[in-house]
Amino acid sequence: MKKIFHYTIICFFVLLLSCNSENSQEVHFLNDALLQETSLDNYKWLVIIPEVGCNGCIQEGEYFLKQHVDKNDICFVLTNIKSIKLLQQKIGVSLKNRPNVYIDRNNKFLLPTKNSVYPCVIKKNINRVKTISFQSPETAALRDLENEILNQ
Question: How far apart are CA 128 and CA 27, in angstroms?
Fold first, then answer.
């Protein structure tokens, strides 16, 4: 019985450490990307929206973009984009000449983890990642951001 208990505890810690290491890898990757892209320095929030991935999650990201594209403290980073023209037609909003829409043509913000298929919400502190969350079937990062914006 003690062996099973010890084995369970060890498995729990291994799982916990593996989750933290992926998050740590994502934060490190995004901090490096932020250091390279100084045009994003003045934004409190970044919302990274990939074109390819979890279809429903990306649609929620596109809807959030459409509703909040005029917010000056949010920068929308569009990554892994095949056609900006098709995206504009899809959401019904012109994205050209908007200072808070960054088209990531070189995929600097395309995460190298399994979470690359989800929209990502980053709260910044100066020019570093303070928090990171994902819009996935299990998490509602965009709704949480919307609530925080409304409560400011």
Answer: 9
The pLDDT value given to residue 33: 95
Q: Enter the DSSP assignment of 140.
A: B
Please state whether 53 falls in left (phi above 0), alpha (psi between -120 and 50) or beta: left
Using one digit for the tens of pLDDT, what is the confidence trace for 48-58?
999 999 999 99
Strands (E), 3-149: 45-50, 74-79, 101-104, 120-125, 128-134
Q: How far, in Å, CA of 143 to CA of 141, rounded?
A: 6
End-to-end CA distance of the chain: 52
Do 92 and 5 form a contact (C-beta atoms < 8 A)? Answer: no
Query: What's the CA gap between 81 and 103, in Å, rounded?
Result: 8
Per-residue pLDDT tens digits for 17-46? 344 467 899 999 999 999 999 899 999 999
Q: Where are the alpha helices (DSSP H) in 78-137?
A: 84-91
